[in-house]
Backbone:
């Protein structure tokens, strides 16, 4: 499956952005999907994930209550609605697809990654 993330940009603290991840090449519903982010010099960290069916959703503690992940099977697209953004949310955000049914918080569970989209939150 090929993935392409979009929707990044520059936003002031307290603002909102919505990231999209479009998938092509294989049946979208076969994959659990996740968002990760990375800043220079740090490990890529888990942000949010959603199961194949969309019934199970997971968030890192740092974004819980502010971000919302969703998926639209008809559009083969996953979303990350980011609200109440903070400067520490600044990072390159990556979407990824997993063939597994669990363990979505671990980046090792993902086989397919898209190029990232940069989110910059100014203070």
Residues:
């Amino acid at each position: 499956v090929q993935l392409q993330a979009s929707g990044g940009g520059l936003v002031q603290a307290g603002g909102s952005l919505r990231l999209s991840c479009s998938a092509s090449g294989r049946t979208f519903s076969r994959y659990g999907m996740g968002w990760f982010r990375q800043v220079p010099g740090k490990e890529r960290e888990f942000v949010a994930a959603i199961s194949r069916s969309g019934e199970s959703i997971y968030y890192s503690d740092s974004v819980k209550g502010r971000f919302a992940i969703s998926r639209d099977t008809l559009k083969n697209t996953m979303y990350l609605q980011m609200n109440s953004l903070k400067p520490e949310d600044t990072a390159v955000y990556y979407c990824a697809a997993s063939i597994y049914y669990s363990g979505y918080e671990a980046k090792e569970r993902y086989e397919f990654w898209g190029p990232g989209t940069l989110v910059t939150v100014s203070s």
Summary: DSSP finds no helices and eleven strands in the chain. The radius of gyration is 13 Å. The CA atoms of residues 47 and 63 lie 7 Å apart.
